[in-house]
Amino acid sequence: xxxxxxxxxxxxxxxxxxxxxxxxxxxxxxxxxxxxxxxxxxxxxxxxxxxxxxxxxxxxxxxxxxxxxxxxxxxxxxxxxxxxxxxxxxxxxxxxxxxxxxxxxxxxxxxxxxxxxxxxxxxxxxxxxxxxxxxxxxxxxxxxxxxxxxxxxxxxxxxxxxxxxxxxxxxxxxxxxxxxxxxxxxxxxxxxxxxxxxxxxxxxxxxxxxxxxxxxxxxxxxxxxxxxxxxxxxxxxxxxxxxxxxxxxxxxxxxxxxxxxxxxxxxxxxxxxxxxxxxxxxxxxxxxxxxxxxxxxxxxxxxxxxxxxxxxxxxxxxxxxx
Length: 322
Fold this sequence. Notes:
Strand content: under 5%
CATH class: Mainly Alpha
Shape: elongated
CATH topology: Serine Threonine Protein Phosphatase 5, Tetratricopeptide repeat
Largest sheet: none
CATH superfamily: Tetratricopeptide repeat domain
Number of strands: 0
Radius of gyration: 22 Å
CATH architecture: Alpha Horseshoe
Structural class: mainly alpha
Order of helices and strands: HHHHHHHHHHHHHH
């Protein structure tokens, strides 16, 4: 059930992107969901929300808040998100925390946003785990770092891509956790196979760094033994070159098709007369070295990581997993 929620959250976050109030006001509503079939799909979502689906209520709230697919209606957005939160839906709790933090839909209230985020974290909702980790990393204290890594490990167990990506970055840099290039590379490989962000580029950088290190250590006996241990890892990582990663490009956005996909996923859950869905709307990333911080956004950690560390290799950074 948790994985289904996260899949739905990722599907919606790629469809309904957070926009400012000014941008929402400028949207040409005629370009969205103006067909009878699209309106029918949205009505199904509203029906699911009526019958108790917190996930559907969250999606409806987001649609009204952003004006994607329906008219821009803040009151309906507030009503639906509050209803979903009252049902203790993790997606809704997390979404409302984002809006409160950003002052979108609701008046900005950081204290309340923190309370709701912590509730979503206790529910072990992947996007909330990752956002909380970002806030903890921004504190730049050993205890906060430890807690952040623990949350990212939970997100990794749920195969939540943004959380896995951030964890890989930390493992490369040695920030908040002992540097481990082998594990970072394996995470990047998993993400690259899913076509996530620039994971393939990060993986290629690690492969180059590892290859360079093995060549430079050829004359040193101790280092050459380490290099021999690196070879099986490199062979495993390079297998990605034999695997075709399919990515859909140039596909025109269709609110109707997205609503249809959401309804289909909800129907597959068989929890209500009508079922559930939800979303995570990206905001800005909060990281060390970033002056104005918020959560639920860019997964590159802004100024938090030193990218040059990708090309730093030593014995302590490599720990093979066989």
